[in-house]
Specification:
By secondary structure, the protein is α/β, with parallel strands linked by helices. Helix content is about 40%, strand content about 15%. It contains 15 helices and ten strands. Strand 8, helix 12 and strand 9 form a beta-alpha-beta unit. Helix 12 runs parallel beside helix 14 and helix 14 runs parallel beside helix 15. Bound molecules: ligand G3I. The site of ligand G3I has 12 residues, from loops.
Amino acid sequence: MLVAASLLIGALIGCETAPHSNSGATLKAAYKGRFYVGVAINRTIAMGAAVRADNVNRNTEQIIKDTAVVTAQYNQISPENDLKWQMIHPSEGASGYVFGPADAYVDFGESNHMYLVGHTLVWHGQTPNWVFRGTNMPPGETNASIAAAPVGTNAPGTRGYGRGFGFSGPRASREELLERMRDHIHTVVGRYKGKIKVWDVVNEALADGGTNLLRNSPWLQIIGPDYIAKAFEYAHEADPDAILRYNDYSLENAAKRQKLITLIKSLQAQHVPVMAIGSQTHVSVSSPSFEQEDAVLTDLETLGLPIHITELDVNGAQGGQSNTSGDVASNAATTQGGLVTDADRKLADAYAGLFRAFIKHDHYVKVVTLWGVNDGVSWRRRGHPLLFDAADNPKPAFDAVIRAATKQEAKSR
Ligand code: G3I
């Protein structure tokens, strides 16, 4: 029924003039033969305008226009939220899965002939507490030892049963959690086998600051560092043909990038099937420049894997000019202070520089995904970070991205 509603809207949209720049150019056509240009879509787009089940406040007319931008401009989609554990597997057990929105996402992509990404299987965010609950004390620990553990190490922290847990009380054993992870990955990847071509298997496992390689997440605390390898192994078992991606943010930062390289080299040495690097690229109008992004990609290429730009947006808010984090908790601070002066021009320049770098590295860059269809639905909407405004009009940044491709075409002729 919902899928039917979505298809009906798709058919209606097909009759309209799709939004585009004055020249009629589209992103997918401009970059054809180089890389997919994609977009993260929310539930209203995947399920059709009849659905009001998201934190996105769009009316029917807006949703129809949003959907028209997606189908006209992009040839790849990612699900902004609906394949995350909390959404697709909110409760324990075989009956705890909710597949409706994810099925609609896949149907939408297939009926529009788009390359489908799955986001994300194993993450510290948007994972329900039941996943980590159990009957066990952390190995070798008591309440007193937990309280005494030093902050800033991989030892459990001072809150309840370790940092990052949204509850206090006994937790799952390593074996229980591995079994839950395996069941989740096999069920979700297995359901969309052959349809979803690329999976974000592990998301944001690296520690942001300090010397620890890995984030002190519940996954790390309960299973240990091999949770990453296990997740990739399970995903590979479930769909041997899927491209399995490790995805993280702030890879523009040299120290974090070095951690990524260390992690991936170690996985490669263990023959873990990690097949692509996802660089989220939540950046700002101040940086990275073309030269900086060129250097980022040059470093990442040393791993010898395809690079996917997975969550691109460019923050134009004054508060977010030195921030590349994907952390939703700190988002309000990074979109404070109004927009930078001459925001539209700076945004266009920033996007032009980034796409010039992606073009230069297109022997490695295979997918570029914008994190949202327009400024009105972006997680960073106050920073006006995307190529279309809230009314779905292309911004100067859109034209700059198109021009970056056509300039390159002219040069190579
Ligand atoms: O589903 C509930 C709904 O029931 C409730 O009424 C509503 C009230 O606010 O919230 C809804 O959940 C929201 C969810 O998006 C789905 O719409 C959450 O509050 C909201 O925090 C959540 O934000 C998402 C965020 O990830 C969560 O971490 C953003 O939309 C999404 O863009 C963002 O995406 C992440 C990537 O997955 C990973 N990398 C960083 C990136 C940006 O944070």
